[in-house]
Design goal:
The protein has 9 helices and 6 strands; from the N terminus they run βαααααββαβαβαβα. It is an alpha/beta fold. The chain has one domain: 60s Ribosomal Protein L30, Chain: A, CATH 3.30.1330. Strands 1-2-3-6-4-5 form a 6-stranded mixed sheet. The protein is globular.
Length: about 220
């Protein structure tokens, strides 16, 4: 089931910013998810979290009725992504979508590798089709590694992983100007790197999906 972040106001948002890495908060109201965060609150939380997709998505929220419309649009896209790649973790955060590809999704990486497997390409094919169906979005791609090896090497490896995913999705027809790529190396693990299984989960790529300027302007016009 898609995890959805529930946001009511600035005070709650600030508290959530301290716990986003630990807890996904369920949302039962689509309009609150899109409209419950204003521009000032979003900018504050984005600054507090910093450097990750969850924070970026909250920071990009525009709020209001337009934000609610964007949220409804993103609900549809998130449902399709979850259906297309059932092993991926799909979260609705703010007005956007976070997709985590790790060892459960089929879009994962062997140790010290940025090579996409046949299964990875198959699943990315499915995601690319959805991105083409919903063209008015920006795509944030993050690469990550486990903690084994040199820090600088892992930073470069995480960039290669993110670049490999971008290159493949672009090869399937998604416009190249929609992507923003960041590499975090071993600095943002999802799990402690204390077992082989956890290390495999940390070798991953995450994708954030946010409204682009065209979607934002269309939503504002519709809201008016």
């Amino acid at each position: 089931m898609i995890k959805k972040l529930k946001i009511y106001g600035l005070a709650v948002v600030v508290i959530l910013s301290l716990n986003l890495g630990c807890t996904a908060i369920q949302n039962s109201n689509k309009t609150q998810r899109g409209a419950g965060i204003g521009v000032a609150a979003g900018a504050l939380v984005g600054g507090l979290i910093g450097g990750n997709i969850g924070g970026a998505l909250i920071g990009a929220a525009i709020g209001g009725a337009a934000g609610g419309l964007i949220g409804n649009h993103m609900d549809k896209q998130a449902d399709k992504i979850e259906e297309a790649v059932p092993g991926a973790e799909v979260k609705r955060i703010g007005e956007g979508i976070q997709i985590i590809f790790d060892d459960k999704s089929g879009v994962n990486f062997a140790f010290d590798s940025a090579e996409l497997t046949a299964d990875a390409k198959k699943n990315l094919n499915a995601v690319a089709e959805i991105f083409i169906e919903f063209p008015d979005t920006e795509l944030m791609i993050e690469g990550h590694t486990d903690s084994v090896g040199d820090d600088n090497y892992n930073m470069k490896l995480s960039k290669r992983r993110a670049d490999a995913v971008v290159a493949y999705i672009k090869s399937q027809g998604v416009a190249g100007n929609r992507f923003k790529v960041e590499a975090f190396g071993e600095t943002r693990p999802r799990f402690p790197n204390d077992t082989k299984d956890n290390q495999a989960k940390n070798r991953r790529v995450e994708i954030g999906v946010a409204a682009n300027e065209q979607m934002i302007q269309d939503a504002k016009a519709q809201a008016e």
